[in-house]
Amino acid sequence: MAGQAKPDDAGTDDRPDHLGHRQRLRDRFLVGGASALADYELLELLLFPGKPRQDVKPLAKALIARFGSFAGVVNAEVEQLKAVAGMGDSCVVAIKAVRAGIERVLREEVVGKPVLSSWQKLLDYCAASMAHGKIEEFRLLFLDRRNALIADEVQQKGTVDHTPVYPREVVKRALELGATALIMVHNHPSGDPTPSRADIEMTREVMRAAAVLGVAVHDHVIIGRGGNHASLKTLGLI
Fold it and tell me: Which of 39, 152, 165, 198 has the smallest set of CB atoms within 10 Å of its CB?
């Protein structure tokens, strides 16, 4: 039909044994888990439904070549994925759904739980949410009297190396939510989580504004591109 969009799998059919290859790959995954597969093979599993009649191995390898690893593919932006030849909407959705699922699972492991005693889980969640961002993003984690996470909000987004933060807005939001403490988190797209002087000064300004109204600031965590992090509290800067 004229004007009808082509499905993701439009193109050359697989070799005659493509169904056997797919089943063997599924069997290996079921027996050995992800560790039994190379990055491109794990991507193949995700791409199978979107391209039921095509050999997806070349596309999977092209994605790894473009983004460097399975994690790089999953964390790529939608438009970046679409720019790879052969990537249709179904394949993009399958890949981005993996990232969304990871983030949701990690978030559920910290929401409503005392975060100070589950610190690594909190860091894992923040890294999954922010480590691959291309612009700075300032996130606030609001805690109740038990230091349980009651809200997680992105307050500001900025440029590649700066995010404007307004201490009064931070404290105002904490009071609106009934939070008694908070943790500040932001990312450094450059990859280096070392706090800048501006990061330190801003943190201290927020702490002063929050202290007046009885809201504690437990920490300010900076997430680097690879998921490495820096804690201003651990560094003795607050």
Answer: 198
Domain boundary among 62, 78, 104: 104
Give the tens place of pLDDT for each residue, 57-86: 999 999 999 999 898 899 888 999 999 999
What distance in Å separates the CA atoms of residue 41 and residue 46, rounded to the nearest whole number? 9
Q: Which of 27-41, 50-64, 124-138, 200-214 has the lowest mean pLDDT?
A: 124-138
Give 101-111 pLDDT, tens digit per residue: 988 888 888 87
Instruction: Verify that 84 and 119 share a domain, yes or no.
Output: no
Residues 179 and 120 in one domain: yes
Alpha helices (H) in the chain, listed in sequence order:
18-32, 39-47, 57-67, 70-74, 78-82, 89-108, 119-130, 167-177, 197-212
Domain region containing 218? 115-231
Find the CATH number of the domain harbouring 125: 3.40.140.10
220 in Cβ contact with 232 (< 8 Å) = yes
Q: Are 100 and 159 members of one domain? A: no
SS (H, E, C) 115-131: HHHCHHHHHHHHHHHHC
For residue 114, give both structure tokens.
């005392």
AA identity, residue 71: A
In sequence order, the β-bridge partners of residue 188 are 224
At residue 2, the pLDDT reads: 41
Q: Say if residues 232 and 185 touch (Cβ distance below 8 Å).
A: no
Residue 222 corresponds to which amino acid? I
* Residues 6 or more apart in contact with residue 96 via CB below 8 angstroms: 74, 78, 81
124 and 207 co-located in one domain: yes
